[in-house]
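Why this split exists: single-chain examples teach little about how molecules sit against one another. For that reason, every record in the complexes split bundles all components of an assembly together and asks for one structure covering all of them. Below is a record exactly as it appears in the raw files.
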Amino acid sequence: MIQNRLLFHQSSVTLEIIGLPDFSNNEYQDQISIISQWKLTIIDKPLIEGKLEHLGPIMDAFYIYSNLLINNETPIYESKLIDIKADNLYIHNIVLKSSKPDVKPLIIKIGNSLLSDTINCFDQLNESSKVRIKKSSFINNIPKKIRFGLTKFKILNFFLPPIISICSLILFSSTFIYFYNPINDKEKNELINTK
Amino acid sequence: MNDVLPNKITIWKLRNNNPLRKSYMNNNIKLEEFDALIKITVEMSRYLYPYMREILQSKEDPEQNSVIWNDFNQRFIELINERFNLHSVRVKKLLNLTVNDEILIKSLLTLSLCISNQGYQKLKNFLFNY
């Protein structure tokens, strides 16, 4: 059976996904959900390829690293499969470790332009309707601050109407309030006593 | 988008919510206006990606003549001088050539990472985390 091949390009980077559709799941002929191989080609750099189980962790590593880089945190990502460190503000050092013994790790240095190309290729793969892949959990993660911001809006909307109604009730009823005046009361009592 | 930003004047007014600008006016930007501005930024980033990439690349190799970077930096400083409040400490930091490299690179990188269809959500997340 001929395998499907899908390419995702972004400037100097190409991500190639090779695999088959899952016909038991009523998929079209041009879809891929059983990935047999993937290749990440960066111009002037060694080819990166691997099995399906390596693709997810590598994508996650790039997403986490880029988030750390942008959020002014220490840009270091280390795992069994891949390490990414910043050499300086412009160059990033990627170390890909092979699962096979006696295979030296592959070291690649990429700049910010290639880093953004690579992540944009992964974004295209994540958004593609033709490839069924477990989506990276790091893309749509709404940070705590946003979650707090959204709930704050909801809480405000929930509590604001009753608070306004209570305030208006107090303001309105305050015009009819009866203040107790002890001097008046004394005078009244004196009048009663004289009678 | 047409309801939130019916014309260019609305966008111009929203720009003035930036406290770093000379013509700063606190109009209390609404959530939907904030969202609309993010959508415009993502669309612009998508359109300008090749240029942003070129600027980032020109800074990567120190041996290479970084004419593109110098042109970009010069234009950035010109615009800041023209439109921003120069008495602000944060604006002074933007104009400081020894410090502004990092700010510019991170800003360009952030925009270049938000050109996908989910770029709107990504940029929003980055901004809230900033």
